[in-house]
Each structure stands twice: as C-alpha cells, then as structure tokens.
Amino acid sequence: MTAYKSDLLRLLDARGYIHQTTDAPALDALASQAIVPGYIGFDATAPSLHVGNLVSIMLLRRLQQAGHKPVVVMGGGTTRIGDPTGKDEVRKMLTDDTIEANILSIRTAFEKFLTFGDGPTDAVMVNNHDWLGQLGYIELLQQVGTHFTINRMLTFDSVKLRLEREQPMTFLEFNYMILQGYDFRHLSKTMGVRLQMGGSDQWGNIINGMELARRMDGAEVFGLTTPLITKADGSKMGKSVSGAIWLNRDQLPDYDYWQFWRNTDDRDVGRFLRLFTDLPIDEIQRLESLGGSEINVAKIALANAATELCRGAEAAILAAETARKTFEEGASGGDLPSFDASGEISVIDALVALNFVTSKKEARRMIQGGGARVDGDAVTDEDAVIPTQAGPVKISAGKKKHGLINFV
C-alpha cells in the first residue's frame, strides 16, 4: 500500500477502493488540510439502486467517515438522456413524474448509509436537473460545447463499443458526457466540490469534467475511481440468478438480501468484508483466514454486517435466525419471502410468484431437474397444484431458496 498522509486515502487504500486517482499527492495533501466535498452521480432509472451501486455508496460513506463531505448527485437531468457507458441499447425514456418518484425512493437507501444535514461534513443530495434544466441549448453549445472535440469523444469506450458492435447511438446519448462534465464544473463553482468519484468505467467522464472546470474556471479538482467489482466467477455485482439485488426493502425482501451475501464465493469473502462492511480490518483478517467449513462463519458475519448497514440491525437478526431455522432445523422461518394466494396455486406459479425463477419455462425445468420441493417433498409433476390450506406452505427451489405461500 502507498504511504498516504490523509485519513481519507489511507482508509480507501486499506479497504481496496482505489483504482485510479488524478494527482494523488495533491489530493492527499488537500485531504490532510481541509474538508473535501466529493460527489458521485446516480441516475434514477428505477425506484431502487442495487448492489452493483453499493461500492459507490460505500465510497461516499468512507468519505464521511474520514471527516469529509459527501455530495449525492441524483441525475434528474441526465436520466432524461441515458448514460451510454456499458450499454448496447438506447435507454427507454421515463416521464418526469417517474424520475421524481424514483429519486424520492432512492433517497431512503442513502439515509441508511450517510448522515444528512447542514453541518460541514453532513451529506447533501442534489438533483442535476436543477441546473441542467436551466441551460438553453445555444448557451450550452457556446459555453460548454467548445471545450469538447468530436475526435476525443469518439475515442471513449462508451462510444467505440457501440460503433464496433454496430449498435445505434443517438445524438441525445452522445451529449451525456458533456452534461456529466458540466455537472462537475457546476458543483465545483457553486458548492466548492473538489473531488468526483465513481467506478472505473467513469474515468473518462471524470477527466472530462475536471478539464472543463479547469478550462472554464481555472479550478483544481480531482478524480478517483474504484476497481470494477466483479465476483470470483466473473459475474457482475448486483445480479443473482433470480434478478437484481435491490437495496430497497420494497423491491427485495430482507431475507433475500441477507442470503445474497451469505452465498458469497469463498474467494470473495475478505474483499467484500472490506468493501461492504464497517468491520475492523483486524477482525476481517481473522475471518478471512478461516479455512474449510469455518469460512461459513465469515460469510454469516458478512451477511449480518452488510444487511445491518442497508436494512437495519433488526432485519439482519431476523434474516440470520430465519436462515438458521431453515437450514439447521428444517423449519419455516417467519422472515422468508412470502406470497399471498387467494386459492389453490400451481407449483409453477408459486415458484414464479416468489421470484425463484423468471419464467414458467424455467420453473418447469426446475421441476424436471428435481429442484422444486413443497414442504420438503420433491415435486415431480409439472402440473402439480398446492391446495388451499390453513397454514403457510414452504416452497423450496434448490438447497438455498425457500419461501412461503400464505392462503388468504
């Protein structure tokens, strides 16, 4: 590890957040002497962010823990365009009302990780539509457009990949990097923001914003990116077999969130403990050194700590107890995901309703493969129906997914 002087960069380095920085010595010196306002932008394309966004949220949390000021920028403006980075398709346009509702919903997750308020290191949330929406098109072209060359923009991965794959990129999307760059310039000028952070795929966009702030205002600002966070099997964070791992409870039950972390690959446990929990480094070193079946102790510690941060201590305790009862005692824990049925329901429909599969076709394959069980008994008939009964019925998909059907 590099011998940083500031608490901020020492903390980020120790826990594995740093991939690239611009002028690290100058940023280190600044963070040693003053409160550094730093921001990350999030587009509001859904009512909840997912685990794939969590490293960025934790980065803002670390910024605050080190005595600096997190600025959460919600993309009320840029969501109307769509970030082409890593995308092969044009983003669907959302209505203004949907975007505003998504921002309100997303804020509830940030309130679990950050302390908001009016103090010097309290987090603030701003909406870039407040300033981007005020820009006239001619004004934007005159003031900002002159600082971007088409030659440079065509070298960006977000553009090159689309063109190489012969996928369309609209002129609207092509403007995204200009508006994101303007965000950094605006925040630097109006709020004194000195640092933009993000995933490694945002490096080019961050550099754009830095250069724009320097050219238009002579500002000295900095950029920092995190490594691309993938799981040991190469898959992206934020996704599971059954879909996205949403941060908001109304998008994903607490138990499913806990179970996602409990199912972490052995090779990822230490890294994820550093990135996604507040456990001390010495405790993490102890946990990651566990071998054999004892690694499950570390996985449960990860699940408990990550769930407590996102969903609260009670949710973590209930999920852990539900898992213990389900796997150790064969019982049906009360915190399992559940679905209310008004009458008899087919096993296929039950599997779909509990989000254990994404389609009836997948449910049939699961039954054919012997992976579906009702109250512990294997289901072999694809047309099997669960009759109406007084108590809940436990549905299992494989060894790790369990849920309840309640008849109402």
UniProtKB/TrEMBL annotation:
Q: Which GO terms describe its molecular function?
A: ATP binding; RNA binding; tyrosine-tRNA ligase activity
Q: What are the alphabetically sorted keywords of the record?
A: Aminoacyl-tRNA synthetase, ATP-binding, Cytoplasm, Ligase, Nucleotide-binding, Protein biosynthesis, RNA-binding
- Reactions catalysed: tRNA(Tyr) + L-tyrosine + ATP = L-tyrosyl-tRNA(Tyr) + AMP + diphosphate + H(+)
Instruction: Cite a single GO BP annotation.
Output: tyrosyl-tRNA aminoacylation
So what EC number does this one have? 6.1.1.1
Q: Which CDD domains match?
A: S4, TyrRS_core
Assembly, in brief, is: Homodimer.
Q: What does this protein do?
A: Catalyzes the attachment of tyrosine to tRNA(Tyr) in a two-step reaction: tyrosine is first activated by ATP to form Tyr-AMP and then transferred to the acceptor end of tRNA(Tyr).
Please give the name of this protein. Answer: Tyrosine--tRNA ligase
Q: Which organism is it from?
A: Sphingorhabdus wooponensis
